[in-house]
Design brief:
Number of domains: 1
Pfam families: BON
Shape: elongated
Subcellular location: Periplasm
Keywords: Periplasm, Repeat, Signal
Number of helices: 3
Mean pLDDT: 82
Domain BON: 37-104
Number of strands: 3
Strand content: 15-25%
Main location: periplasm
Radius of gyration: 23 Å
CATH class: Alpha Beta
Strand order of the largest sheet: 1-2-3
Length: 104
C-alpha cells in the first residue's frame, strides 16, 4: 500500500518533464523571440528600401530568418540590385543578405 501512495506524484512528475521537453526550442524552429526579432528586421529593411528615392516604384520581397535577409523580386537595373543589397546590409540586426533579385 505504501508504494501506491507514491505512484501519482511520480506519474505527475514524469508527465510534467515530458511536457516541458516538448516545449523546448529545437535547431529547426525559431523561438517566439527569434521570430519577433526577424519580423522587426524585415520591417526595418522594407522601410529603408521604401525610403530610398532611387528605388521608388520597384517591388522587392524581404524575408528574414535568424538575421539572414533574403531579397527577391524584379528590378530594372543592376544598380538597383546593388543599392538594395547595400541598404539591407546597413540595417541593424542583419547578419547576411542573400540576393535573389532579377532584372526585368
Amino acid at each position: 500500500m505504501r508504494q501506491l501512495r507514491y505512484l501519482p506524484p511520480i506519474f505527475l512528475t514524469l508527465l510534467l518533464a515530458l511536457l516541458l521537453a516538448g516545449c523546448a526550442a529545437s535547431n529547426e524552429r525559431q523561438t517566439v523571440g527569434e521570430y519577433v526579432d526577424d519580423s522587426v528586421i524585415t520591417t526595418k529593411v522594407k522601410a529603408a528600401l521604401f525610403n530610398e528615392p532611387s528605388l521608388s516604384g520597384f517591388e522587392v520581397s524581404v524575408e528574414t530568418y535568424e538575421g539572414r535577409v533574403q531579397l527577391s523580386g524584379f528590378v530594372s537595373s543592376q544598380e538597383d540590385i546593388n543599392k538594395a543589397v547595400e541598404i539591407a546590409r546597413g540595417v541593424e540586426g542583419v547578419r547576411s543578405v542573400e540576393n535573389d533579385m532579377q532584372l526585368k
